[in-house]
Amino acid sequence: MLEKVKELISEVESAVAKTDQEVENFRLKFVGRNNVINDLFDEFKSVPSEQKRELGPALNKLKNQAQEKLKELSNALNSQSSSVSDVDVTLPGTFGKEGSVHPISQTKSRIIEIFERQGFNVEDGPEIDNDWNNFTALNFPENHPAREMQDTYFVEKNPDILLRTHTSNVQIRLMNKKKPPIRSIMPGRVYRNEAISARAHCFFHQVEGLVVGENISFKDLKNTLYHFSKEMFGKETKIRLRPSYFPFTEPSAEIDISCFICGGSGCKICKQTGWVEIAGSGMVDPNVLENCGIDSTKYSGFAFGMGIERITMLKYQIDDLRLFSENDIRFLKQF
Ligand code: PHE
Questions:
Q1: Closest approach atom of ligand 1 to CA 306
Q2: Nearest residue by C-alpha to atom 10 in ligand 1
Q3: Ligand 1 pocket, Cβ-based, cut-off 6 angstroms
Q4: Which of 94, 231, 289, 300 places its Cα 20 to 30 Å from the Cα of 248?
Q5: Mean of the pLDDT values across residues 140-166?
Q6: Measured distance CA(292)–CA(289) in Å, rounded
Q7: Ligand 1, residues 175, 246, 285: which to mutate, most atoms within 8 A of Cβ?
């Protein structure tokens, strides 16, 4: 038996392994559950005790050597596989497709940038709000037909909770928490119950602006939007104001810009008129200021609101509103 043990010791000492499988074979033979050394330990129990004195230490040596060798073999193989690499680091890399900023977000950022340089700060508010903030405080009397101008999605009835139909709810919230001077813009998503088509969608984005202070006049409104239009659409841009109606502003005006495609001579984009509409605006109705606890004899203000989709469509001559929400990569990667 001693001979057998010595033979195995030399087999362990001289073992080499070039592959994982060879390491595994070594492990199975010498270290695994049914290894040869265990068999020898079983036999050891029945050998005469005078032989045990020599055989015992030899068996233990074999066992320890086998465990050590196994570690050695697998370490050698691992370090070999990581140092001999088939990666050619001089090859040009391959890159995943890079995303791009959505055109609506690009226009929104640009609008914010222009107004921030005129001293406006950005305010935010909830998309789900109550009737007071979206309608009543904005001078929409109950059951007034003006509410029909904005087809509303209701979340709850009595008391009414709704998806905001414009970002004007943020104006009310702002005037409730902060007193003049106010000079803010409110970008955000709004919802209207409209059939989806190339020209209308059930949700879209707006940026509204609100300025309240002492001696704020229509002149300030016109100047602010004139400056914005030149920055957004080019230095040559002219603006014109058309009388309009909104419950929360008096007087109210629609803002048109001279068509930046044809320069005013008439084209498809401006429907041959030379002008395109970009925003609604007006002087804040004194009732709205009073509804928010602002003294309308001391303060006045103006407000305006524009659709981000509309501005983007004009700027890039996009003719279908649905493209913005379809996530078609062929459309998005053009921006
Ligand atoms: N809230 C109006 C709308 O959504 C836009 C607007 C804002 C008009 C401020 C005038 C002043 O249609």
A1: 5
A2: 281
A3: 166, 168, 208, 246, 249, 280-282, 303-305
A4: 231
A5: 86
A6: 5
A7: 246
Q: Cβ–Cβ contacts within 10 Å for residue 74, how many?
A: 16
DSSP three-state, residue 52: helix
What tens digit of pLDDT does each residue of 208-219 get?
999 999 999 999
End of a domain among 52, 83, 114? 83
75 and 139 housed in the same domain: no
**Predicted local confidence at residue 1, as pLDDT:** 83
Sign of CA dihedral 268, 102, 203, 242: negative
- The pLDDT confidence band at residue 81, using thresholds 50, 70 and 90, is low
Whether 216 and 70 map to the same domain: the answer is no
Is the confidence at residue 2, as pLDDT, over 90?
A: no
User: Is residue 73 a contact partner of residue 61, using CB atoms and an 8 Å limit?
Assistant: no
Distance (angstroms) between ligand 1 centre and the Cα of 307 equals 9
Are residues 161 and 57 part of one domain? no
Total domains in the fold of the chain: 2
Confidence of residue 263 (pLDDT cuts 50, 70, 90): confident
Same domain, 233 and 274: yes
**In testing the pocket of ligand 1, which one of 120, 168, 175 has its CB within 8 Å of the most ligand atoms?**
168
Distance 269 CA to ligand 1 centre (A): 23
Instruction: Find the domain containing 73 and state its range.
Output: 2-83
**What is the torsion angle, in degrees rounded to the nearest 10, for the CA atoms of residue 41, residue 43, residue 45 and residue 46?**
-170
Q: Which of 133, 208, 211 to mutate to test the pocket of ligand 1 (most atoms within 8 A of CB)?
A: 208
Give how far Cα 210 sits from Cα of 119, 120, 172, 286, 289, Å: 12, 9, 10, 14, 11
Nearest residue by C-alpha to atom 5 in ligand 1? 305
- What's the 154 CA to ligand 1 centre distance in angstroms? 20
Q: What is the pTM of this model?
A: 0.73
Reference 278, options 247, 237, 219; nearest CA is 237
- pLDDT, mean over the chain: 92
CATH of the domain at 204: 3.30.930.10
pLDDT category, 85, cuts 50, 70, 90? low
Atom index in ligand 1 nearest the CA of residue 168 equals 1
Average pLDDT over residues 267-280: 92
